[in-house]
């Protein structure tokens, strides 16, 4: 058989962003031997790109903050579709996880009296995001990486996992290939934690990088895990819209958190026209009031409307562009120079300053930026147990962006980084505890390995088939046009048909050369995942006949109060992808009142 190497661990973690690293550290703490596999170099994950900060109710800037307010904000932001148990755990545990990062060496920005500083972000009642300028993710990954390496986690870099195996119903291993040589490697394990991140590479305009092809979700689905809430893909309101080569690159919400305002081509600060009833009590409704908040005492003022949740701001920008009030390149103006002096901007937003200067020739200390929505994050993903992060497949866990439940219909900024450390830790601990209860690691049957290898080698045996890069481009066009920010039944049905046709085309693809450093073959392998997950997104979006959070249906523009009680699950039923409307656990009375009426 064509497998050169086999490794064995109690716990295998696939993915080395914040969730994977935190899971690996926890599994080590739990006494397990741990392997950590990542598709790119260690340290090059989406977590490193995180800019604005990590949300937790530390109460350093506003002492009134506590887990109850954070819980309420998360549930309101998620439009009620969050798993309330995850939202509660997350709000309760994130302050400890952030303090732990600090104890492990992360150097966060400070308040004047020396505590960790916190900045305001959309949908958070109080200033809540601990941050390091606009490079928070870099500090977080550096800290976690150092800690994991010192804990003796065995790391396998540039190694792509593409198939999971079960023995007697329990997870037993993963097959991967080395990017540099194309050689195959088998990881045998008693428990596996998936932490592979999201799916943004399915869309043309995205803030995500090449790793985000939905691999974890597809691998889990293939061995029987359920996918949940995939109709909820977050379109971040502020991506760069120009020049075309960098369209989609993120402009952190920190710009608005630090005082940036949104205007249209007529110079109007349009967000005042888009304040929904739910947020009226918390949101400034005049420019004068909003400016008092930016310039001075944040304690006594309501937040500016630019800090409404991402779904609301993204849709407002689209509405302005459609009404003919967009910028020359089809977006809105984001202006921080109007509210802050150059020194403040350079010290609080250094990466944004350089990003615009170098990529667009725009000096954000004197000029406005042009911004528009970009595919950014997926709230849906693998369905997990709220306490342990275990999937329905025994021994298989998922944490971070690849998992679903916490964020419901829309994620609040900063709640991803805290999600990674809260649920990454829980997943690692549970995976180690479960591994301890197992006997010897089972052998993956050689017949299954052989058939997996035959499939993954198949494009080399064909001549003149489709080109994987062409399929990838077609998929992105379909997803942007038909499964984007505004959807219809007709468009979604067409998208499902288009994606299925592309899946057939993928089966007929041919790839030249050998497996060593072969981007054509790497893309072909990734596309198996991406097409599968994109089909699940389109089917889930078709199944939810309402508009809620990040999911907007032009043909069902209203929110249906009945549908808050259900989530959409995608299940592999005998090889057929099916959607199921599943009841969503509802919070107890006391927490329901908290969400509806406030603290
Ligand atoms: C530009 C940008 C800015 C952001 N800013 C913020 C912010 O300020 N605050 C916030 O809370 N959130 C922010 N987010 C979101 C947040 O960064 C991500 O949701 C989060 O980092 C995801 O972490 P993760 O551990 O789940 O995945 P990642 O950090 O992306 O890690 C995924 C890992 O899985 C590996 N992998 C993938 N597929 C495979 C495979 N098949 N085999 C092996 N390994 C694999 C990758 O190589 C990588 O190591 C931002 C996102 C972006 C893109």
Describe the structure.
The chain is α+β, with helices and mostly antiparallel strands and 599 residues long. Helix content is 35%, strand content 17%. The protein has 16 helices and 18 strands. The strands form 4 sheets. Strands 1, 2, 6, 7, 8, 9 and 16 form a 7-stranded mixed beta sheet that branches. A 4-stranded antiparallel beta sheet has the order 15-10-17-18, covered by helices on one side. A 4-stranded antiparallel beta sheet has the order 11-14-13-12, covered by helices on one side. A hairpin with a 2-residue loop joins strand 17 and strand 18. Helix 1 runs parallel beside helix 11. The mean pLDDT is 95. Flavin-adenine dinucleotide binds next to helix 1, helix 4, strand 7 and helix 11.
Note the main attributes of this structure.
FAD/NAD(P)-binding domain, Methane Monooxygenase Hydroxylase, Chain G, domain 1, alpha+beta, 3 domains, 4-stranded antiparallel β-sheet, 599 residues, binds flavin-adenine dinucleotide, Flavocytochrome C3, Chain A, domain 1, globular, 7-stranded mixed β-sheet
Radius of gyration: 23 Å
Instruction: Specify the CATH class of the largest domain.
Output: Alpha Beta
Number of helical elements: 16
Based on the structure given, which CATH architecture of the largest domain is correct? 3-Layer(bba) Sandwich
Bound molecules: flavin-adenine dinucleotide
Low-confidence stretches: none
Q: Please indicate the count of domains.
A: 3
State which percent range the strand residues make up: 15-25%
What's the helical proportion of residues? 25-40%
Structural class: alpha+beta
Main sheet, how many strands, which sense, barrel? Answer: 7 strands, mixed
Count of DSSP strands: 18
CATH topology of the largest domain, what is it called?
FAD/NAD(P)-binding domain
**Arithmetic mean pLDDT:** 95
Specify the CATH homologous superfamily of the largest domain. FAD/NAD(P)-binding domain
Shape: globular
Q: Ends: how far apart?
A: 62 Å
């Amino acid at each position: 058989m064509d497998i050169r190497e086999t490794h064995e661990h109690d716990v295998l973690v696939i993915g080395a962003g914040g969730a994977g690293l935190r899971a690996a550290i926890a599994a080590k703490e739990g006494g397990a031997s741990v392997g950590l596999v990542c598709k790119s170099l260690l340290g090059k994950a989406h977590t490193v790109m995180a800019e604005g900060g990590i949300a937790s109710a530390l109460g350093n800037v506003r002492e009134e903050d506590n887990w109850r307010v954070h819980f309420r904000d998360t549930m309101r932001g998620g439009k009620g579709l969050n798993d309330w148990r995850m939202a509660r755990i997350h709000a309760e545990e994130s302050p400890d996880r952030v303090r732990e990062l600090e104890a492990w060496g992360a150097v966060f920005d400070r308040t004047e009296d020396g505590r960790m500083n916190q900045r305001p972000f959309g949908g958070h009642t109080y200033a809540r995001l601990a941050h390091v300028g606009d490079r928070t993710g870099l500090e977080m990954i550096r800290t976690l990486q150092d800690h994991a390496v010192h804990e003796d986690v065995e790391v396998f870099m540039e190694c792509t996992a593409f198939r999971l195996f079960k023995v007697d119903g329990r997870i037993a291993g993963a097959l991967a290939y080395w990017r540099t040589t194309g050689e195959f490697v088998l990881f045998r394990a008693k428990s596996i934690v998936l932490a592979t991140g999201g799916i943004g590479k399915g869309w043309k305009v995205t803030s995500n990088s090449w790793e985000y092809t939905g691999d974890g979700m597809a691998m889990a689905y293939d061995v029987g895990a359920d996918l949940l809430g995939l109709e909820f893909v977050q379109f971040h309101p502020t991506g760069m819209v120009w020049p075309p080569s960098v369209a989609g690159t993120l402009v952190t919400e920190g710009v608005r958190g630090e005082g940036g305002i949104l205007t249209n081509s007529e110079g109007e600060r349009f967000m005042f026209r888009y304040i929904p009833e739910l947020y009226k009590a918390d949101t400034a409704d005049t420019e004068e009031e909003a400016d008092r908040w930016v310039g001075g005492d944040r304690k006594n003022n309501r937040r500016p409307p630019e800090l409404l949740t991402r779904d609301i701001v993204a849709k407002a920008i689209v509405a302005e562009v459609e009404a003919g009030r967009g910028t020359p390149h089809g977006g809105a103006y984001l202006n921080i120079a109007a509210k802050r002096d150059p020194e403040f901007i350079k010290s609080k937003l250094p990466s944004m300053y350089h990003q615009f200067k170098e990529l667009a020739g725009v000096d954000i200390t004197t000029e406005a930026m042009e911004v528009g929505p970009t595919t950014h994050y997926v709230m849906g993903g693998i369905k997990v147990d709220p306490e342990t992060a275990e999937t329905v497949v025994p021994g298989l866990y998922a944490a971070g962006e690849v998992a679903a439940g916490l964020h419901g219909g829309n994620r609040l900024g900063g709640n991803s980084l805290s999600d990674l450390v809260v649920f990454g830790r829980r997943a690692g601990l549970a995976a180690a505890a479960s591994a301890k209860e197992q006997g010897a690691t089972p052998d993956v049957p050689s017949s299954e390995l052989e058939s997996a290898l035959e499939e993954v080698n198949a494009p080399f045996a064909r001549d003149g088939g489709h080109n994987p890069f062409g399929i990838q481009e077609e998929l992105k066009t379909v997803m942007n046009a038909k499964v984007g920010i505004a959807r219809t039944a007709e468009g979604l049905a067409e998208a499902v048909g288009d994606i299925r046709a592309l899946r057939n085309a993928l089966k007929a693809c041919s790839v030249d050369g050998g497996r060593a450093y072969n981007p054509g073959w790497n893309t072909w392998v990734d596309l198996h995942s991406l097409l599968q997950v994109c089909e699940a997104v389109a089917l889930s979006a078709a199944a939810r006949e309402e508009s809620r959070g990040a999911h907007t249906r032009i043909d069902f523009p209203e929110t249906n109060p009945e549908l808050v009680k259900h989530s959409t699950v995608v299940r592999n039923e005998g090889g057929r992808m099916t959607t199921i409307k599943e009841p969503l656990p509802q919070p107890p009375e006391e927490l329901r009142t908290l969400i509806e009426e406030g603290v």
